[in-house]
C-alpha cells in the first residue's frame, strides 16, 4: 500500500459478518492471501492493498458476509448494493 498525500495508507478494509457467514469457503478459495477459514471466514488483515480477488470474493459470497471498504473514504466497494 502506498501513502497518499496526507500520509495515510491507501487500501481497503475487509470485514466478515461472522454471524452471516455459512463457511462456504469461496472466499478462501478465491483469495487465499486475504481470508482464512476456522469455524467461519476471517480476513487475514484488516487493511489490504486493492485486489480484484478480494472484490470477487465479496461479490460472490453466497450470503454477502464479506464487505470491502475504501480506507480513505469509508465507501463500501463490495458487495455492490
**Strand numbers in spatial order across the main sheet:** 4-1-5-6
CATH architecture call: 2-Layer Sandwich
Domain unit count: 1
Shape: globular
What is the radius of gyration? 12 Å
User: How many strands appear in the DSSP assignment?
Assistant: 6
List low-confidence stretches. 1-7
Sketch the major β-sheet: 4 strands, antiparallel
Relative helix content: 10-25%
Class from helix and strand fractions: alpha+beta
> Into which percentage range does the β-strand content fall?
25-35%
Layout of helices and strands, plus pairs?
Elements: E1 12-16, H1 26-30, E2 35-37, E3 41-43, E4 47-48, H2 52-60, E5 66-70, E6 76-78
GO molecular function: electron transfer activity; iron ion binding; iron-sulfur cluster binding
Keywords: Electron transport, Iron, Iron-sulfur, Metal-binding, Transport
Organism: Micromonospora peucetia
Amino acid at each position: 500500500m502506498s501513502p497518499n498525500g496526507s500520509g495515510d495508507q491507501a487500501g481497503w478494509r475487509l470485514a466478515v459478518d461472522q454471524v452471516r457467514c455459512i463457511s462456504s469457503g469461496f472466499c478462501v478459495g478465491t483469495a487465499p492471501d486475504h481470508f482464512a477459514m476456522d469455524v467461519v471466514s476471517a480476513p487475514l488483515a484488516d487493511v489490504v492493498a486493492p485486489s480484484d480477488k478480494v472484490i470477487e470474493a465479496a461479490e460472490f459470497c453466497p450470503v454477502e458476509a464479506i464487505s470491502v471498504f475504501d480506507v480513505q473514504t469509508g465507501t463500501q466497494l463490495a458487495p455492490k448494493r
